[in-house]
Amino acid sequence: MANVFNRMGDWVTDRAPGFLPFYRKHMTEYYAPKNFNLWYYFGVLALVVLINQIVTGIFLTMNYNDSAAGAFASVEYIMRDVEWGWLIRYMHSTGASLFFVVVFLHMFRGLLYGSYHKPRELVWLLGMLVFLVLMAEAFMGYVLPWGNMSFWGAKVIISLFGTIPVIGSTLVEWIMGDYLPADATLNRFFALHVIALPLVLLLLVVLHIFALHEVGSNNPDGIEIKKGPKGNRWDALKPADGIPFHPYYTVHDLVGVGFLLLVGAFIIFFAPTFGGWFLEHDNFIAANNLVTPAQIKPVWYFTPFYAIVRMIPSMFGTAVWGVLAMFGAIAVLFLLPWFDAGKVRSIRYRGTGYKVALALFVISFLGLAMIGTDLTDEIFPKIFGAKIDITLWDNVFGRLMTAIYFGYFVFLWFYTHLGWEKTKPVPERVTTHD
Amino acid sequence: MTKRYFFSIALALGLLFGSVAAQAEGPELPESGAGVRDQASLQRGAKLFFNYCVGCHSLKFMRYSRIASDLDLSEQDVMNNLNFTGAKFGEQVISHMPADQAAGYFGKAPPDLSLEVRARSSDWVYAYLNSFYLDSSRPVGWNNTVFPNASMPFPLWELQGVQTAQKKPGSDDIEKLELTHPGKLTPAQYQQAARDLTSFLEYVSEPAALQRQRYGIWVLLFLAGFTFLAYLLNKEYWKDVH
Fold first, then answer.
1. Least CA distance to A90: which residue of chain B?
2. pLDDT tens for residues A283-298?
3. Which of A77, A275, A378 is opposite residue B21, by nearest beta carbon?
4. Residue A44 in contact with residue A202, Cβ under 8 Å?
C-alpha cells in the first residue's frame, strides 16, 4: 500500500516538481517555535470557521432567494422544509459570531506577544485587511435574512456614509441602489457576500499565511528562534527551538479544533439564538420600513466600533466626526507596528506601563461594547439609582472609554519612542512554561 | 503564568457573556413554564390554537403535515380535528380571514404567528394571554397590560372569564387585574391552557427545536470522544519534545 502511495507521489513529482517542496516549506519543514501556548490556537480556529462558513454558505445559497419579496420566507423555508436546513443555517449563523470571537482573541494574542513587531509588520497588515473584509462580509451577510433588524441595521450603517459632506447623500443612494434598503440593495449584497468578498478574503488569508511562513512564527517569549542556536532532531541547520509544523502542531491544533467544535455544537443544538445575541428577536420579524424596532443596534461584534460613532458629537454642522473616529479606531490598529517601537515583544518582558496600558485597552474595548449593546442602560441605573440621566452617564463613560482606546496608541508612541519603557531581560532560548 | 492570564481572561469573558445572555430577554415577565418537550401539552395547545386563534391568525410557514408528524398525530386526526380551513394536508396554515378586511374590522390586520415566540419570547406570549381586561374605551372592548391598546379582542374569555383593571387610588395606572366573572376553567386550569398554547406557538416558531435537542447530545458526546482522542494523540506525539 505504502508502495502505491510512493509511486503516486513520484508520478506527481515527475510532472510537477514544485509541489513537494511547497508542501515541505509550509508543513513538514516549517519550523514553528515549540513553546506555543493556548493563545496560539485561534489562528487555526479562524481557518476552521472560515471553511465552515464557505461550506455551509454554499448549501444556503441553494435555497436562499435574494429578493426583498422572498428572502425572509426563503430563510424560514430553509429552517423548516429543507432537509437539515436548520442545522446548516445555525452552523452559518453561529459560525459568524464565533468567527469574531476567535479573530478578536487572535488579534489580542498579537498584542500580548508583540507579533506585529519587525519583521512581521506585513503579516499584521494583511491580517488587519482580513479583519476589515471580514467586517464587510459579516455586515452584508447580516442583511440577507431580510428581517426587520437586517433592514434597519443596513439603513443605519449605510447612512453613516451620508455624513460625508457634499457627496454623502449621493453616495448612500449609490450604495443602496434605491432611496431605502430594497431589492437592489439585497441583490448586490448577496452577490458581494457570496462571491466577491469571500474571494478577497481567501486571497488575503493565503497571503497572511505565506507572509507568516516567510518570517516564521512569533512565540510567547517574543524571541526570534531563527537567531538562536541551530540544529534540531530533524535538520542540523534549522532552529534548535523549532519543531515541524506537521505533524506536531497539526495534532496539537486538532485538540483546539475539538474544543471549538464542542462549543459551537453546544450553541447550535441548545442555544442557537444565544439569548438573542447571535440571532436577534427583531430579526424574526420580516423587514418593514414602516415599523422601527424599539432599539436599533448592530450585532454584538460591531458594537465597540459603533459605540464610538455615538460618542462623538456633531461639530461644525456635520456628524462626520463620529464616523471618522470609528474608521480611525480601525486605522490606528493598522498602524500599531509603527506606534510601538518597544525593544522587546512579549508582555512577559515588557515594562509595567505596557501591561497597564494593554489592560486598560481591553477594558475600553469591552466598555465600548457594553455601550454599543445598550447594556449600560440596564447596568447604570442598578449601580447609581433609577433617577440618573442615562444618556449623560453613557456619554461620560463612553467618551472616557473612547479616549482610553485611542490613548493606548498615543501612550505607546511616547512610551516606546522616548525610551520610557523599562524592560526585563529576555532569555536566549524559548522557555517552556506550564 | 500564561495559563493564569488565559484563565482569568476566559473567566472575565465568560462572566461578561453570562451577564449578557441573562440580560438579553428584555422587560421582566413571569416565567411561562412553556417548552416544546411535553408532547401532550403541545397537542392541547394545537387544539386551542385551531379552535380559538386560526379564525384570524395564520401560521404561514407551518404545514399541517409537519404538525402531524412532529406532534405524533395521524393525518386523520389533523384533517378532522384541527384543519378547519379546507387546506390540503401538505399545505400551510392560512387563516380564512382576508387581511384587508381584517384591517377594517380591527384597525390592524392580525399578525401571522409563525415566528411570534421567537420575535417576542414565550414569556411574553404567556403573559399576554393572561393580561386581557375589559376596557370600554377600546373599539373591541378589550385591552391588555402587556401590550397596551392591542387591537385584538379576547377570544379565550369564555375559558378564563372576564378580568377588570383595579386602578391605583388617585391615578390611572393599573395596579392589578381582578377576575370579576369566572370562566369555564379555574385560574389554574386557564394558566395551564395558556401555557399549552404558548408551548405550541414556541414549537411553531422553531419546529427544528425538537430535532436539534434530540441530536445535540449525541453530537456533543461524539465531539467529546474525538477531542479526547486528539488529546491523547497530541500527548503521544509531544511526549519526547522538551
1. B212
2. 999 999 999 998 888 9
3. A275
4. no
Distance CA A194, CA A86 (A): 19
Q: How far is A25 from chain B (nearest CA, A)?
A: 21
DSSP B163-184: EEEEEPTTSSSEEEEEEEEE-S
Q: How far apart are CA A162 and CA A285, in angstroms?
A: 27
DSSP string, A371-400: HHTTHHHHHHHHHH-TTS-HHHHHHHHHHH
Query: CB of B116 within 8 A of CB of B147?
Result: no
Cβ–Cβ below 8 Å for B208 and A432: no
Give me the residue label for grid cell 453561529.
Answer: A94
ipTM of the complex: 0.91
> Which residues of chain B lie closer than 8 angstroms to A90, CB-CB?
212
Q: Which is nearest to A299 in space by CA: A181, A159, A145?
A: A145
CB of B22 within 8 Å of any CB in chain A?
Answer: yes
Instruction: Give yes or no for A73 touching B (CB within 8 A).
Output: yes
Half-sphere exposure in the Cβ direction for A62 (13 Å, CA): 13
d(C-alpha A47, C-alpha B201), whole Å: 38
Rounded Cα distance between A230 and A233, Å, is 10
Interface test with A, best of B4, B6, B20, B29 (most A CBs within 10 A): B20
CA distances from A414 to A19, A235, A263, A328 (A): 48, 43, 41, 19
- pTM attached to this predicted model: 0.92
Q: Which residues, numbered 341 to 400 in chain A, qualify as contacts with chain B under a Cβ-Cβ cut-off of 8 Å?
A: 348, 366, 373, 375, 378
The model's pLDDT over B141-166, given as tens digits with 9 standing for 90+, comes to 999 999 999 989 999 999 999 999 98
DSSP A315: B
Measured between beta carbons, which residues in chain B are less than 8 angstroms from residue A266? 216, 220
What's the rounded Cα separation, in Å, for the pair B233 and B235?
A: 5
- Interchain contact, A80 vs B208, CB within 8 Å: yes
